[in-house]
Each structure stands twice: as structure tokens, then as C-alpha cells.
């Protein structure tokens, strides 16, 4: 694992990505502004210069397409272990599909629990 990539991942874990994608057009906002709009980050792409871009899983492919030749790693908090971008390219779409499915199941369970409570 690249030492620089691990350092970038550690800084993201301690704070947040520099920007967060907020729509399918690829517009971004500061993490604070994005959170106020209802967008928290679930995945973070790290560029070779250390700059980072977060997104919800549903907008991950939008984020990824913004600098496809510059990404060096991917971080899925709360994991502290970054995924090298080459590895993400080989299996990222499958991983993303699984993560989206888990998120959907979680939403369904939450609705079911709310319905049972009244």
C-alpha cells in the first residue's frame, strides 16, 4: 500500500473530503454545505495530488468520472484502509452494487420498524 495514499486516507478519516458531489451533473459543495442539503459522503475518491471528493453511493460513478486519470485511491468510511484505484477499477462496480443493495435493505428495514411502532 502506498504510504502517501494511507496518509491521505488518514486525513480524510480525521476530517472529511475537500468537496462532495451533490447532483448527477457533477456539481460539488463543501462537506458542510452538502450536509445541509442532505448529502453526506459514503465514498471518497482520492486524487494523486491529495485532493479528495466524496459522494453518496448513488453518485459515486458521477464523482469517479470527473477525474478518471487522476484517482489513486478510494475510501469507504468508516474503513481506515484505502483501496488502490487500480483495484477499485477491477471490482468497483460490483462492490458499489453490493453497497447500494445493503443501503436499500437498510432503508426498507427502517421503514418496517417505523411501521411496527405505529
General description of the model:
The chain is an alpha+beta fold and 118 residues long. It contains four helices and six strands, in the order H-E-E-H-E-E-H-E-E-H. It has one domain (3-91). Strands 2-1-4-3-5-6 form a six-stranded mixed β-sheet, with helices on both faces.
What is this structure's SSE topology?
Elements: H1 3-14, E1 19-21, E2 28-29, H2 31-36, E3 43-47, E4 52-55, H3 60-66, E5 71-75, E6 83-84, H4 85-117
Parallel strand pairs: 1-4
Antiparallel strand pairs: 1-2, 3-4, 3-5, 5-6
In short:
The chain is built from 4 helices and 6 strands, in the order H-E-E-H-E-E-H-E-E-H.
Descriptive tags:
118 residues; 18% strand; globular; alpha+beta
Give a quick account of the main beta sheet: strands, pairing sense, barrel closure: 6 strands, mixed
Which range does the strand content fall in?
Answer: 15-25%
In DSSP terms, counting alpha (H) and pi (I) runs of 4 or more, how many helices?
4
The helix/strand series, from N terminus to C terminus, equals HEEHEEHEEH
Strand sequence of the main sheet, in spatial order? 2-1-4-3-5-6
Query: How many E strands?
Result: 6
Stretches with pLDDT under 50, minimum 5 residues: none
Shape: globular
The structural class is alpha+beta
Distance linking N and C termini: 50 Å
Instruction: Estimate percent helicity.
Output: 40-55%
**Quaternary arrangement of the chains shown?**
single chain
| Average residue pLDDT | 81
Radius of gyration: 15 Å
How many individual domains?
A: 1
Amino acid at each position: 500500500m502506498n504510504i502517501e495514499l494511507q496518509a491521505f486516507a488518514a486525513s480524510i478519516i480525521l476530517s472529511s473530503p475537500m468537496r462532495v458531489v451533490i447532483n448527477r451533473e457533477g456539481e460539488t459543495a463543501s462537506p458542510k454545505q452538502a450536509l445541509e442539503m442532505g448529502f453526506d459522503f459514503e465514498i471518497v475518491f482520492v486524487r494523486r495530488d491529495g485532493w479528495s471528493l466524496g459522494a453518496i453511493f448513488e453518485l459515486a460513478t458521477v464523482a469517479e468520472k470527473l477525474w478518471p486519470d487522476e484517482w489513486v485511491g478510494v475510501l469507504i468510511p468508516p474503513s481506515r484502509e484505502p483501496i488502490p484505484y487500480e483495484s477499485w477499477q477491477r471490482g468497483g462496480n460490483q462492490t458499489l452494487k453490493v453497497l447500494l443493495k445493503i443501503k436499500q435493505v437498510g432503508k426498507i428495514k427502517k421503514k418496517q420498524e417505523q411501521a411496527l411502532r405505529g
